[in-house]
Amino acid sequence: MRCRTDVLAAIFGLAAVASLAHAAPVTFIYTGFASGTLAGDAFDNRAFTITGTADTDDVFATGAGWRVTHTSASIDFNSLGVLSVLQETSTAVNNLSGIVVFGNVPPNLALYILGSDPAFNTWDLLSSIGPFNLASSILQWNLGPLSTSGGELILNSQTGVGTFEAIVIPAPASVGLLGLAGLAAARRRR
């Protein structure tokens, strides 16, 4: 009985810590096809994967949804290689239109738009979601190229199909809490 009380006390203690430190890393993964130029060299209809990482503590509300600035971002263009993005980028969800946007900061240049899907109408960027296959649009308006480790990237506006997925990795305290809950359940079965 004493052991079960100790385990329950530890679980509640970890729950308190987890509620205070709920920050968790999140990875946003976008895929699709694009044409454009990289460092002045043209490319046509190349498959790409955009990966942006962020911290859920940095998510903030916008008028129509949620946005987070990435701590890092990269674009993998298969034969062109993996390019580190050298300027601030963000992921945003518009809950009114059900779309997800990868863009640079300030949010006046949408690079890649995916949607719409009803799941995005209530999503707040704080939980894992997807993967989804969605209609996509690349809209890089004449506000300047995207700076990357491979040079300036300019994407041609086009529509197509892409995928989106967000993966939230639980905070260590939450993982510990789940482990202790499993331990308590195992001891209870004995």
Mean pLDDT: 82
What is the chain-wise order of helices and strands? HEEEEEEEEEEEEEH
Shape verdict: globular
CATH-defined fold name of the largest domain: Lipocalin
> How large a portion of the residues is in β-strands, by DSSP E?
over 45%
What is the radius of gyration computed over CA atoms, rounded to a whole number of angstroms?
A: 20 Å
CATH class of the largest domain: Mainly Beta
Stretches where pLDDT is under 50 for at least 5 consecutive residues are 7-20
Number of helices: 2
Number of strands: 13
The second-level CATH architecture of the largest domain is Beta Barrel
Written description of the protein model:
By secondary structure, this protein is an alpha+beta fold. It has two helices and 13 strands, in the order H-E-E-E-E-E-E-E-E-E-E-E-E-E-H. Strands 1, 2, 3, 4, 5, 6, 7, 8, 9, 10, 11, 12 and 13 form a 13-stranded antiparallel beta sheet that branches. Helix 1 (2-20) packs antiparallel against helix 2. The two termini are 12 Å apart.
